[in-house]
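Now for one record:
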Amino acid sequence: MSKYNWYKRVCGVFLLWAGTAIALPAQTFTSLHNFDNTDGAYPQGPLIQARDGNFYGTTGYGGNSACKDGCGTVFKITPGGVLTTLHSFDNTDGSLPIAGLIQAANGNLYGTTFEGGTNNFGTVFKITTGGTLTTLHNFDYTDGSNSQGALLQATDGNLYGTTSGGGANGFGTVFKITAGGTVTTLHSFDFYTDGSSPIAGLIQASNGKFYGTTYDGAANGDGTVFKITPSGTLTTLHVFNGTDGNLPYAELVQATNGRLYGTTEEGGANGLGTVFEITANGALTTILSFNDVNGATPVAALVEGKNALYGTTYYGGASGDGTVFQITAGGILTTLHSFDIADGESPYAALVRATDGTFYGTTFDGGTSGDGTVFSLSVDLSAIAEP
């Protein structure tokens, strides 16, 4: 637990309902790569599968650079586990790329760094799948600082994101950036009124509006769920109060039923985090409180599979080193894998469901060198009943 709490300072099963037990779906867990610092360390952002079929991601530390512990990397990994380091940051072009990447319509990858760049408040960058990196923007605090969430390419073609600090009030921002690098601050948060530290990135729902969370702040200091229009009009949809969760760390996901789903790092019935459902208008239901046996401290976004959502917990499970879980819309949770240090520890990032249906992910640390891993998990989705 100490490493996670330290990293946060740097960066800023009892169910709640009755349910019948279900058989564990057939599955195959495979460790694909063990980071060793030279090729990166401590991956925090989620992988993406690009149009070439390979996966791309970032590590917050490591790589071949002048930084003491490495300033982080961008890497490519094949579905079979062959990893190529595409770029090692050297602080001048950013450091701590802890958010994941996105692939835009033009085929290039886009991301952010938490620190480094001209002003040391982080950057927005573009990188080709071949590894050519261009810095698009250096944050200067007035327009935001310390971006931690992945960017989003909206239907208007622009990129949208959040910064966990900076802006007019110092509590973080929502911003828009054009392909050419022009940044517009759409909203500056103000702690007590509308929340603070939007660590997670945004999603664009089917109604065209953006939805996100603030990690803390607002009336109870426990964070919020908000929506914001592309022009910057923000509405707070829900203020957490601890009993229904607090400290929402990860991006929301909109499921095929139209509802939004997310996690909170802490709070709930046992204080160990929750899974919640919220409508586009703000009606929130806590559907699970973690209890350590079934996981604890979910800091990653959920991903939708067949008739269920999939996610990870940073702690808890059989060995206390985190889990991969499945939760149905009806509220039945199944632990699919418990990490044990040797095969990885503390999965920080969301899973990605590949085109073949297999899930891929990373662990923040653990593995052969203790610097994190890349893994795959194949699950027999046909075994999951309709809700």
About this structure: Confidence is low (pLDDT under 50) at residues 1-23, 383-387. The longest helix spans residues 2-10. The CA atoms of residues 4 and 346 lie 9 Å apart.
